[in-house]
């Protein structure tokens, strides 16, 4: 296959994913169709059916492909920075079309519980379950934190505060607020001394 | 006015409030009408117009009347219990019709920003802004906590974790999880020693 053909296939896949996200937010889960995604992406319906069994399969793959993966700095010497970066991935992501699709799936979980469940299993759990959890577990595994303090409640603090700010203000926290969330809420919960007047 | 007449008026007001909440969740903010609320509550439309200028005025009053007020125990000797009770008010409230109405107002804030703003000013801010904030400020004012630690981030930790649990699970935290939220997330942020294996 030529480089040109590969690019073109990658672009087609991106278009199909974007079409699935748009289809969801515009017509809702219950009325998503292969025909709709085919039309929005300029793809033949038969091509879609060869690769995917249903519109929601395309949708889940689109979310998987556009979900950020939390990382840890190699030196194990920047817990604070790693936590701020982890929450930064979330803050950057929440305004993307993928995040709107995730919100729509969670809002319709009453009618489509299997889709919400697949979202948790295939996307959230596979990517660490919560932003900051991968970082906290990593530092705990290497003896820098007491592992007993890295509970499900504690690993949810940062994500909960970022999403709460979004719900209250309509926009995610900026970088200075992300740093305050880490300094004032996440680090104290894992036994770090609290620094109120931290130098910039 | 006789006791019987007063009861009857209180009941009518409760019915009108309930009708406004139901009207919102069924037809949406944009299509709420005095006629709809009158019909749902079995009240004459003219009676509504005498007291309220618009359907959203009734709606805001209904939310105000059904929003819990956080309290502090008189002895100033049970910070943990007061925090758990504060989050318990929120956990009990989030499944009520009023909470569904609040969710609907916040979701339509893009189209009706003035209503969302009125909600924050007349309901949330007037009731302490955040659950646990009244308690934390009270203990800080009486010298039991460093006031510098009671920031907007810290006073949002408990509420953010309760609402996050609701979003992830479709139900609010139970009482043992509320206690863990206080022990593992809220108390560490205000400088209290963390108790991991607390006796019941």
From TrEMBL, chains A, B:
Alphabetical list of Pfam families matching this protein: TetR_C_11 (PF16859), TetR_N (PF00440)
An example Gene Ontology molecular-function term: DNA binding
Domain HTH tetR-type: 10-70
Record keywords: DNA-binding, Transcription, Transcription regulation
Gene3D superfamilies named in the record: Homeodomain-like (1.10.10.60), Tetracycline Repressor, domain 2 (1.10.357.10)
PROSITE patterns: HTH_TETR_2
Native source species: Actinoalloteichus hymeniacidonis
Superkingdom of origin organism: Bacteria
Protein name per its UniProtKB record: Transcriptional regulator, TetR family
DNA-binding annotation, residue ranges on this chain: 33-52
């Amino acid at each position: 296959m030529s480089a040109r053909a590969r690019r073109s296939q990658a672009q087609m896949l991106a278009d199909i994913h974007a079409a699935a996200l748009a289809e969801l937010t515009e017509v809702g889960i219950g009325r998503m169709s292969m025909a709709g995604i085919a039309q929005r992406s300029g793809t033949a319906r038969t091509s879609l059916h060869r690769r995917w069994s249903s519109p929601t399969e395309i949708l889940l793959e689109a979310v998987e492909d556009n979900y950020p993966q939390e990382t840890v700095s190699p030196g194990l010497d920047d817990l604070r920075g790693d936590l701020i970066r982890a929450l930064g991935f979330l803050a950057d992501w929440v305004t993307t079309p993928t995040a709107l699709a995730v919100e729509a799936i969670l809002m319709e979980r009453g009618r489509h519980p299997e889709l919400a469940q697949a979202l948790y299993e295939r996307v959230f759990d596979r990517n660490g379950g919560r932003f900051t959890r991968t970082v906290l577990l990593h530092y705990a595994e290497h003896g820098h934190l007491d592992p007993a303090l890295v509970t499900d409640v504690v690993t949810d603090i940062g994500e909960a505060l970022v999403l709460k700010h979004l719900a209250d203000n309509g926009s995610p926290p900026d970088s200075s607020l992300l740093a305050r969330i880490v300094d004032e809420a996440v680090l104290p919960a894992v036994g770090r001394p609290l620094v109120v007047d931290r130098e910039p």
